[in-house]
Design a protein that fits this description.
Layout lengths: L1 E9 L3 H19 L2 E6 L3 H8 L5 H9 L2 E6 L14 H11 L4 E6 L13 H4 L4 E6 L9 E3 L4 E3 L5 H16 L4 E6 L5 H17 L4 E6 H10 L6 E4 L1 H15 L6 E5 L5 E5 L16 H13 L4 H16 L16 H12 L11
Parallel strand pairs: 1-2, 1-3, 3-12, 5-10, 8-9, 8-10
Antiparallel strand pairs: 4-5, 4-11, 6-7, 11-12
Length: 362
């Protein structure tokens, strides 16, 4: 297969973790006979410094032409003034909009070797395998904003079409898993949530009769996600609720550094990134956890390029590295931490070994 992949290193630890994922993609391409053309472009704070814009037109154009986009992270103290007219996060929001990405997929599957790093009791985490589908284009983040000397307001708005498409995506995912979807809202208070619940109910009933749909209020969901995480398969929710719940869910895995994500639209092109931020406090020290970005690269292979077996081989390699105790400082016992380069090298070494996927060409 030949594919064009845009790499957006971004800010903070972004360049370090994307470099690790690029090494893995190159190793997969060489071993399994693919041609991945990797093109690097600026976004976020780095782009502001270079051009004054968080998403230069050249970057967006390149992403639109690509088969997939791999992102590191954006933001940092240098650009953190909330009153600034131009901020790194605007680049990410504009990229999602420019590519028509509406569904953010965040899988959470705690690994046995890292259960001790989670603040949650290990017996609650064994067997957890869930995925959160967060709507990306609507809600309070994109609504009209007003500010006066004495008050401020942010409009939360959703259309029926926006809700339908993300609920469909969640139900389609559930069909390949355990056929169970929990839709999260605040329908006892918010009118947008009442619409969300009505639309979700109709879509599941009329289009996915084989999928069980359950509703949860966001406050009770926040509790249940910690108390009984094994009960959940696919969780679908609106933009802000999803932003909050996915950060909470990351604690099930023990570290933000372990979790990947995919932002998808109607076509095959997607944006793939770890769920962690730019972590400027550890940038340049070679200690960032690259696993979330490497696993994001696996999601890229699966969802945008259709290379399911190769994606699973990367996931197996990361799992084997965690099993071997090659852990960065966010997961390792004091004094036993591996570097970013150590973990990357260990994953690459695992990829040299036979992969337990029968249909994979070798």
């Amino acid at each position: 297969m030949r594919a064009d992949i845009v790499v957006l290193p971004g800010d903070g630890i972004g360049p370090e973790v994307t470099a690790a994922a690029v090494e893995v993609l190159r190793a997969v391409a060489i071993r399994y006979g693919h041609q991945f053309n990797l093109h690097e472009h600026a976004i976020g704070g780095a782009a502001i410094d270079a051009s004054g814009e968080p998403l230069p037109a050249t970057t967006l154009d390149a992403c639109r032409r690509a088969d997939a986009v791999l992102l590191g992270a954006v933001g940092g103290p240098k650009w953190s003034n909330p009153k600034a007219k131009v901020r790194p996060e605007q680049g990410l929001l504009a990229l999602r909009k420019g590519l028509g990405l509406y569904a953010n997929l965040r899988p959470v599957q705690p690994h046995a070797a890292t259960l001790g790093a989670s603040p949650i009791k290990p017996h609650l985490l064994a067997g957890v395998d869930l995925i959160v589908v967060r709507e990306l284009t609507g809600g309070i983040y994109f609504g009209q904003k007003q500010r006066t000397e004495t008050s401020a307001s942010d409009l939360c708005e959703y259309s029926i079409a926006e809700i339908e498409r993300v609920v469909r995506r969640a139900c389609e995912l559930a069909r390949g898993r355990r056929n169970h979807v929990v839709s999260v809202d605040k329908a006892n208070v918010l009118e947008t949530s009442r619409l969300w619940r009505e639309v979700a109910t109709r879509v599941a009933r009329d289009e996915f009769p084989d999928v069980t749909l359950e509703h949860q209020l966001v406050d009770s969901m926040a509790m249940h996600l910690i108390a009984k995480p094994r009960a959940f398969d696919v969780i679908v929710t609106e933009n802000m609720f999803g932003d909050i719940l996915t950060d909470e869910a990351s604690m099930l895995a023990g570290s933000l550094g372990l979790l990947p994500s995919a932002s998808l639209g109607e076509g095959k092109v997607g944006l793939y990134e770890p769920i962690h931020g730019s972590a400027p406090d550890i940038a340049g020290r070679g200690i960032a956890n690259p696993c979330g970005t490497i696993l994001s690269a696996a999601m890229l292979l699966r969802h945008s390029l259709g290379l399911h077996a190769e994606a699973e081989c990367i996931e197996q390699a990361v799992a084997a590295v965690l099993d071997a105790g090659v852990l960065t400082a966010d997961l390792a016992p004091a004094g036993q931490a591996a570097t970013t380069a150590d973990v990357t090298a260990a994953v690459l070494a695992q990829l040299e070994l036979p992969c337990q996927i029968a249909e994979l060409r070798d």
